[in-house]
Structures are given as structure tokens and as C-alpha cells.
Specification:
Layout lengths: L1 E7 L13 H20 L4 E6 L2 E3 L8 E11 L3 E10 L5 E12 L14 H6 L3
Antiparallel strand pairs: 1-4, 2-6, 3-6, 4-5, 5-6
């Protein structure tokens, strides 16, 4: 898993208990996973189809730096599935894991799924 991006937890990211709001971290995960999938496929026309099991394991607080680890899980004809782990940059403690985020490549005009033309093997080679 490659940790590719970081965010600073700011006051407007907190819930009533003073920790990182779950909805905010889900927003970040969706955005980071889209950027990762888009870069891997070299395609911009992707939409989120599914976000599977999400496990919150620890909290983050104001001033913490969180980092996003992303990896390709599966590649379909029109889709790509990504795993995302969010962890504290300093302590390396896992904050959250989203194990199955599926993006579908769509035609920008018809908005219908179309093949992206990549295989899992090709995408894994990009890691080298």
C-alpha cells in the first residue's frame, strides 16, 4: 500500500466530541480514492458506484496529520476497485479502512459505462 496524500485535521473537521467527524473522513476517502483510480487508469470520467465495509479503528484530533494509503484491489472491464487506509502520520495508528471502493468508467457524453482498457496486471506494473 502506498501512502500518497496527507491532510491536516482542522477545527471545522471535528464532531461534537472534538474528534474527526466520520462524514468528513468519508468525503476525503472518496476524493482521494477517485484521484488514485483516475491516475491509475489515466481517465477522468469515473463515478463512485460502491463503498463497501468501513471500519473506524481510532480517532484523529485537531492538529493531527492523517495520510491516505491506497491500493488497487480489483479491475473489471469498466470498473476498478480500490482499498484505502487512513492512518495518523506520526503514530502510524490506523484511523479508518475502506476496503472496497468501486469506480466505474463512463462515457462523458452518454454517462453510460464503457471499457477503460486496462488490466490489473498493467496497473500493478505502474507501481514499479
Amino acid at each position: 500500500m502506498r501512502f500518497l496524500s496527507r491532510r491536516l485535521v482542522m477545527p471545522n473537521d471535528l464532531n461534537f466530541a472534538g474528534s474527526l467527524f466520520g462524514g468528513r473522513i468519508l468525503e476525503w476517502i472518496d476524493e482521494e480514492a477517485y484521484i488514485f483510480a483516475s491516475c491509475q487508469l489515466d481517465e477522468r470520467s469515473l463515478v463512485t458506484k460502491h463503498i463497501g465495509a468501513i471500519s473506524f479503528e481510532s480517532s484523529a484530533y485537531q492538529g493531527d496529520v492523517v495520510e491516505f494509503g491506497l491500493d488497487i484491489k480489483n479491475v473489471g472491464r469498466t470498473s476498478v476497485s480500490v482499498t484505502c487506509m487512513v492512518r495518523n502520520k506520526i503514530t502510524k495508528q490506523t484511523i479508518c479502512v475502506a476496503d472496497d471502493i468501486v469506480f466505474v468508467h463512463i462515457d462523458s457524453e452518454t454517462r453510460k459505462p464503457v471499457a477503460h482498457g486496462k488490466t490489473k496486471e498493467e496497473l500493478l506494473e505502474l507501481k514499479l
